[in-house]
Amino acid sequence: MALRAVLLRQLRVPVQTLALAGCKSQPWSFSSCIRLMSSHDDHLSKEQVIGRVLDVVKSFPKVDPSRVTPDVHFQKDLGLDSLDNVEIIMAIEEEFKLEIPDKEAVKIDSCNLAIEYVYNHPMAA
Amino acid sequence: MSVSTAAYLARRAAQKERVQILYRRALRDTLTWAVHRHLFYQDASNLREKFDANKHVEDLDAIDRMIAEGEAQYNKWRHPDPYIVPWAPGGSKFTRNPTPPSGIEIVYNYGREDND
Questions:
Q1: Looking at the complex, does the CB of residue A35 fall below 8 Å from at least one CB of chain B?
Q2: CA of B115, closest CA in chain A: separation in Å?
């Protein structure tokens, strides 16, 4: 009996980590599922935007995927030129179904700016 | 000296932006012209080769002339009915079912809420 009490006192069930893991394994929350049929897609979370932008940049043929981080500069850090920059922005536009005005799209030259722009865009989907 | 250097750099920067915008528009137009994605890849790489062929030109006036030529060519071959993202002006979903402004909600009482 004493042994059981000691054992129970030492025993810790990792409830919290389990709950967190459960959240992470289910990326679509209920609120975002229920908006799928509406004419406007629900707004994206920051993590979704970061993940998808990084996926797009990593899948660009001239980019070494291991060097891509959320605050990487396309031309300074990844060794791309200005036309590659244009192609990456086009790919990001297609990924999020956006249409970025030319003057603004030319100004986006790093992952950080791209993530900020997409996250703040009301039509990003 | 420094004034002319600054002017030179400013002109180069303006040219760089012009080329970027021209390439962007041309690439978008290529995507509109190409019926299938696998056709687009070949067209896009041809377009990129055309731009890369004049990558190392240093003469400012020659660059200006080339950009003007490229823009003229782009305008000549521009697609008459380009693809537009659905929500954008001219798109198929433009102003359809917009979300109501904040502070306005739909009440499903059909006007009876005043008479009760």
A1: no
A2: 32
CATH number of A2-120: 1.10.1200.10
Contact B25 A102 (CB under 8 A): yes
Compute the average pLDDT of residues A65-93. Answer: 93
* A92 CA: distance to closest CA in chain B (Å): 13
B17 to chain A: closest CA residue: A106
Q: Are residues B28 and A90, on separate chains, in Cβ contact within 8 Å?
A: yes
Over residues B30-88, the pLDDT tens digits come to: 999 998 999 999 999 999 999 999 999 999 999 999 999 999 999 999 999 999 998 88
Domain layout of chain A by residue ranges: 2-120
Sign of the torsion angle spanned by Cα atoms A91, A51, B17, B86: positive
Check: CB of residue A63 under 8 Å from CB of residue A57.
yes
pLDDT at B105: 76
Does ipTM exceed 0.85?
no
Give the model's confidence band at B113: pLDDT under 50 very low, under 70 low, under 90 confident, else very high: low
For residue A74, give every residue at least 6 positions away whose Cβ sits within 8 Å of its Cβ, in sequence order, or none.
A57, A80, A84, A85, A88, A109, A110, A111
- What's the one-letter identity of residue A64? D
Q: Cα–Cα distances in Å, from A74 out to A82, A97, B2, B50?
A: 9, 21, 29, 22
Q: Would you say the C-alpha torsion B58, B59, B61, B65 has a positive or negative sign?
A: negative
